[in-house]
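Pilot study result, target chain (370 residues):
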Amino acid sequence: MTGALKAQLLYQARALGFADARVTTPDGIGPAGKRLRSFIKDGRHGDMAWMETHADRRADPRGLWPAVRSIVMLGHSYAPDHNPLEALAKPKRGAISIYAQGRDYHDVIKGKMKLLARMLTDAGAETRVFVDTAPLMEKPLAAAAGIGWQGKHTNLVSRTHGSWLFLGAVLTTAELEPDAPETDRCGSCRRCLDVCPTAAFPAPYQLDARRCIAYLTIEHRGHIAEEFRKPIGNRIFGCDDCLAVCPWNKFAEAVGQAKQQMRDDADHPPLVDLLGLDDAGFRLRFAGTPIKRTGRDRFIRNVLVAAGNSADRALLPAIERLMLDASPLVRAMAVWAFQQLASADECSRLRGKYEMREPDADVRIEWRPA
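Predicted structure:
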């Protein structure tokens, strides 16, 4: 019975648009929990405190739900129809990670996953559905299920779909036959390691999130350290570099459904259009996308870093206006961005105008002479 149920389940998953669907067990997570604890011990999670808080539950799916017997891992492709790195050659526009250019992937695939879970429920099993919303290590579980392997950049790589997969998990009490794990096929390739602008990989298969542009522009809540500002370039939300250069992407077909969900206003927008966004404008523009969850202040902080790297002096008036923003994050990056584009005389004039009235010590530090 369980064999027939699994076959029906995986058939329905593909009918719903999932690129891949396979099964593993809670034990399939293997040594990933131990690696996670080392990652946290070394402080490489940065200020993502939630990773540390729930580390024990992440280390074993049974810590999340003791009744789980099988885990149906699902991959939903978002492969682009172009090279994401092309956006980096347009410094007057903001580069947004491919996954964030459309509807929030949680909304896109969770409904489909609930339909699959209903099949298990109808068969008498209990289920839990998760899309990056619980302390669950999806990547090692997906590797254990055979969807792909964790590459040297620590992301999942599929022989069929490259690096472009959203992952979801249906935990169930049903006893389903597990699939065989995938073999690591990175070989001697190190393109993903070498392309990283901020040297975020201390070794193959290891990531220091504190140096990762995706972390810095999405998760990091504070000021972006000066050593990372130039390497960030025009990336204003996420980074696709290590994903985009993977040779296995040559087998990934662009997904028409994903393309239809892309939004024009999130497709590398002009920086000048973004610098004027207040909170209401930000929420309206990015409603329903992953970008909204980061919040306006952090997003404008990122846009200002890109503006400082743009060599576009036409942005100076908009940048100066942000020196009076309510957020210290924004004011600090406005000062830095202005100094990257303006002459020494222009910087001196504004320093006299704004520095002494600035209440925040971190912002005042940005006014130091070059």
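One observation from the pilot: The longest strand covers residues 70-77. A full batch analysis is planned for the follow-on phase.
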